[in-house]
Amino acid sequence: MALSRADTSVLGRWWWTVDRWTLAALLALVGFGYVMLLAASPGVAERIGASSRDLFILKQVFFLAIATGVMVSISLLPIKMVRRLALLGFAGALLMTMATLSIGVEIKGARRWLHLPGMTLQPSEFLKPCFAVVAAWLLSEGKTLGIRASAAACTLFLIVAGVLAKQPDMGMLMVVGSVFFAQLFVAGVNLFIVGLCGLLGVLGGIGAYFLLPHFQSRIDRFLDPAAGDTYQVTVAMEAFGHGGLLGVGPGEGRLKGMLPDAHADFVFAVAGEEFGLAICLLILTVFGFVVLRGLLRLLGEKDMFIILGATGLLTQFGLQAFINMASALHLIPTKGMTLPFISYGGSSVVAVALGMGMLLALTRRRLARMEDE
């Protein structure tokens, strides 16, 4: 892109202030998501008897295009507009997430989705990034408004936690809770309160184990494979072993045809079989690069809202990627969580783009802070 440093247009200022390395890494993930979609989705479409083997490809290409546009467009916004967007997005996503409890589609015992014309929406995916930015705003205002702002942030978290637990979606709740915990720690909240929050999280996990049969089943099957069905994890591990160092080649994987969620939750296993350990490590490196690059970008930053907002978004992005890859590798109990930009899922990919767009906007180098206030 040939833009002069003297270019004072919106696009010119954006190009010379946005973190182009992070943007390039995110676009690389989008590109690899397209490649993995070509590899994993036709077999899934054929297995479920879809009208076209390209059904998932056509849908996801559409969503990837929207996601790219959303990410770049939001990265153009000034800070005050990011705050407003997050607040409106949080309110809308929270209301729709609450609506799933009464009018949502029930799948595998959970109500997390709303049926819309031509698609199914999971509003809690959009709740994650918006809550991270709203919580950052409230916690940063605690310096001037005192306990009221921090109490408001904690109240919002408890409301979100209650709705997610009611669905139930314990994996999503764990991610949102971890993000908020990280923000509390960075904000300098009293360590006793941070420790109390951590203890409540542990107690909540123990309570979920005894109160939610499906949650208990996943833990038991992880600790003792003989305790139940571990078919997908077993096939995924075989796929990694079959792929070896360099993989069997694009489109040549055979075990993906045996994985019901090869295009979504276990897309990392498909990458392992067809492209091998080398590409899996590359994917892991790109995710790690985005997180570390974002944290390094915050060094020297004085605005607490930017620090807390970026910290929350990066924690969410990195943790979601870790949960997906670790589940496929049987390092943690299985959890239906997508691999950002790579797994199939319209709600997920657009929501991740929303979060990364806000991250790029928050971490831009601003020569004139006044225009963002």
TrEMBL record:
InterPro entries: FtsW/RodA. Its EC number is 2.4.99.28. It comes from the Bacteria. Its main location: membrane. One of its GO terms (cellular component) is plasma membrane. One of its GO terms (biological process) is cell division. GO terms for molecular function: lipid-linked peptidoglycan transporter activity; peptidoglycan glycosyltransferase activity. Keywords: Cell cycle, Cell division, Cell shape, Glycosyltransferase, Membrane, Peptidoglycan synthesis, Transferase, Transmembrane, Transmembrane helix. It catalyses: [GlcNAc-(1->4)-Mur2Ac(oyl-L-Ala-gamma-D-Glu-L-Lys-D-Ala-D-Ala)](n)-di-trans,octa-cis-undecaprenyl diphosphate + beta-D-GlcNAc-(1->4)-Mur2Ac(oyl-L-Ala-gamma-D-Glu-L-Lys-D-Ala-D-Ala)-di-trans,octa-cis-undecaprenyl diphosphate = [GlcNAc-(1->4)-Mur2Ac(oyl-L-Ala-gamma-D-Glu-L-Lys-D-Ala-D-Ala)](n+1)-di-trans,octa-cis-undecaprenyl diphosphate + di-trans,octa-cis-undecaprenyl diphosphate + H(+). The chain crosses the membrane at residues 20-40, 61-79, 85-107, 145-164, 184-212, 275-292, 304-329, 341-362. Belongs to the SEDS family. FtsW subfamily. This is Probable peptidoglycan glycosyltransferase FtsW.
